[in-house]
Structures are given as C-alpha cells and as structure tokens.
Amino acid sequence: MKKLVSCIVICLMVLYGIGAAVTATNQDQRCFKKSTTIGRSYIDELDQSMTDFDGALPLGRTNIFGFYANLSIAQSFIPQKEVLTRTYFLMARNESTTYPCFLAVRENLTAKDLAIVSVEPSEFPSVNGTPTEEQVAWIEFNFSDVWVVPGKTYYLVVYTANITDNYYWISGNGTNIYPNGTVFLSIDDGKTWSEFTDADGCFKTYGLHETFLEITISPSSIKPTIVIKNVGNYTAWDVTVNCTVSGGLVLIGRIFSDSKSELLPGEEMTFQIGLILGFGKVLIRLQVTAANVKEIVHEQNAMILLFFIFLI
Predict the structure, then answer these.
(1) Hey, how many other C-beta atoms are within 10 angstroms of the C-beta on 25?
(2) How far apart are the C-alpha atoms of 75 and 54, rounded to whole Å?
(3) CB 198 within 8 A of CB 87
(4) Can you give the C-alpha Rg of the chain in angstroms?
(5) Among 227, 255, 258, 231, residue whose Cα is nearest residue 243
(6) For the chain, which terminus, N or C, has the lower number of CB atoms within 10 Å?
C-alpha cells in the first residue's frame, strides 16, 4: 500500500508540476453505450494479468491531497493471443458515483478506440473511503472482440465523466510486477499522459488463439455439398456459413445459412445448399466466419437448369 501511495504523490507532483510528454485524443463521454453481457458460446482463456493487490487509486474527479483532479488510468500490455475478448480490473466505486466507468482498447494513447464499453455504477461494490482488498471486486469489461497482433503493445484506458465526486477506485501495485507493460496516468481527460514504470494495475485479459478453416465444394446435380474443415491447431468457435446465389433467373433459393458452436482441430462440418429453382449462369458466394477465424470468402460459378446445378 505504501508503495502505491508513494506512486500517487510522485505522479501528481509530476503531472501538476511539469506536465506530461505523451499527447492523446480526448475521451468522449458521449460514446455509444454497449452491453457488458455480450452473448458468447465459446470459451476464452486468460492471456495477460497482474493480480497482486497493493492499494487503490481514485479514478475520476476527486479531492486528492487538498486539490481536485480528474484521474484517468491506462495499462499497457502485450497480448499473446490473436483475439482479445474481454478484460477485468479490480475495482470499487465511491458512494456518490453516478456516471458509468468506460474502458477503451487502443493501439497507442493517441489512437482511436479499437473497442469501447461502459459499466454502470451498480455493477461495482460501493465504499466510503479508500477500499481494502476485501472491498474491491473483479469487474468485467465485455467489449466486442478485437483482433490484435501478439507481441505488440496495446493499452487499456479506463476513465469516467469529469463530474465532482464521481469517481471509482482502481487497484494496483507500486512494484513493477507485470513485465510486459506499465501504468499511464492523466489528470486532464486524457489530453496528456505520463508513464510510471514502477506501477501496474490489477487487471486480467482474456482471448482466443487464431485458427484456420478450409472450404471445399463437392459437386452434385441438385444440392452441392460444402465441407468446412478446421486445419488449424485450435478449436474454431461460433462458426457461421452464409451462402448467396446471384445472377441468372433464380425463382427459389437465393440465401442459405448454417452454424456450429465449435469445430475442433481436424474436424469437419458439412453444409448442403438448399433447393434452388432457376435458369442461367449464377455465382455461388460462400462467406465463413468464426470468433477466432478471419473471414473467408469463396466464390463458385455454376449453371442452373430448373432444379439442376452444374459447377463450372
């Protein structure tokens, strides 16, 4: 706790005394509010974390050592998985807090948000004064999945509305425990930032490894069969297949779809195009997506004669 408090005093002296060297875009409190209960059927895994509690910093506008400051915090980290799915911070809120807490994922502190989500105050434990370890809780920030580059540095930026006595508590440690990142602090709504290499926030990130799918089409005179095989090393989650038929004169059967919650490595799923009635040359377009597979598009020319389909 003493280490983290010392970090607070030093950082405020630096921020107020000589300013900060890193410039960032303004944080827009009017951002679109997203749900924290995004439905997922897949199982993501812990990627990066620092969980050793040493104390807590106020996040938002509050009286710190005799003067008001609006404190925003960013934690840098280096993911090892290709898809970032969600993150947690060890937090609480002041009894007077009324505005949501925001978390944004950025490539750097000056970049636009890759993802952003807000969590309402009611989701946080309420405290009166600086919280102890027993009074804080792991708060989930469940944003839309983000493709990232393993080994590259990213930033989790946490902030709230600049309103007097609207603040949260965010836990951390004054010792540089996490080797792949550090803490950045701002007192001016994210316009400027300062790095503090001796501190880390208490955080956890979750993600998925990328995998790969292969598409083959088996010809049939009435209903061509599409085989999708997982040729990667990891389970493909939430696989969705969309098929559209364009061109020609198609009277029945232009759109087809199918899905599978998980496709294990080496496993195949079979998708059969439904009944099509028409005439002429058409284009069959397959679009395959999954939570941890980059979109695959496969196009196949065909000739339709009534109910018969001939791949060309």
Answers:
(1) 13
(2) 16
(3) no
(4) 25
(5) 255
(6) C
